[in-house]
Amino acid sequence: MTSPIASVLTRRTALGLAVAAMSMLPVAQAQTPAAKWPAQPIRFVVPFPAGSAPDVLIRFVGIKLTDKWGQAVIVDNKPGGSGVIGMNGILNSPADGSTFGFVQGSAISVAPSTIKGVSYDFNRDFVPVTLAAVAPFILAVPADSPYKTLADFVGAAKAKPKGIEVADNGRGTAPHLASALLGLQSGAQFLEVHYPGGAQAMQATLGGQTKMMVETYNVVAGNVQGGKMRVLASMGDRVEPGLEAFPLASKTVPGAVAHGWFAVIAKKGVDQAVLAKLNKDMGDALMLPDVVAKSRELGVYPRPGTPEQLVQYINEDRKTWQGVLDKLNIKPE
């Protein structure tokens, strides 16, 4: 016969187990989205045209993620508007963990300060997932240029203010701002010449209409390797593999550091556990040996990290470029 005390203890034990089970339900439910994710194809909105370096990189990484997830990775190209069209494409997508962005840093740090009508606010509308890769800007001159070093070029520009032409791919673009930063940090005044794209800037430089161009290495690599252009310096913050032959601009002009960069972002509202899984899986994929090798071919360098590190990177990038925009008196237009 069961004693009254034992009966009470049994009831209390059962009640305690029931309460404990109920308290665990929210945890189990919170883990469910990430545990099941992805249960459908994943789309990356890319504000670049097909065939561009970042487009090729995310497609290559997408193959690795497809193998890992067992779900297709779809690249949705939405080029134009300095990345604004792509950013709006992410913003107009559901926050259900099926759509993310693989975007250029300038769409976050520069476009809202240079383009009228930008309706998104990164801190309000998006969340960081990971920095993906950087692409240092390269200072390239024709092979027969009289300027053998960056110091030669800066010296000539100081001796002839606004008399030495520098080509970029458009007013307010990242290459233009990188060139402006070089001028501000060195005290030289270049004659900035803006072209519709990197190809036109290169033709102008090869043709002698401009004396130097600012672009990422993948744009100038063919002519450098073919002996038609020389690199005076890299504006990277470190010597990257494959760029060891190029001195850092910051060694000649302190503070002359500028990258193009790409990041994975999400619309605000995506489940945090999903974001954490994507951060890990994307970081692992970016550092696979064949992905690193492909990145080098494209002139970009993987640098995955935490969302917090990306936030810090964005804040520093905004501060740098807003300072340049203010000094150049560039307003949204």
From TrEMBL:
Record-linked Pfam families: TctC (PF03401)
Gene3D superfamilies in UniProt: Bordetella uptake gene, domain 1 (3.40.190.150), Periplasmic binding protein-like II (3.40.190.10)
Alphabetized UniProt keyword annotations: Signal
Signal recorded as keyword: yes
InterPro entries: BUG, Bug_dom1
Signal peptide range: 1-30
Family to which this protein belongs: Belongs to the UPF0065 (bug) family.
Name under which the protein is recorded: Bug family tripartite tricarboxylate transporter substrate binding protein
UniProt organism field: Polaromonas aquatica
Classification of source organism: Bacteria, Pseudomonadati, Pseudomonadota, Betaproteobacteria, Burkholderiales
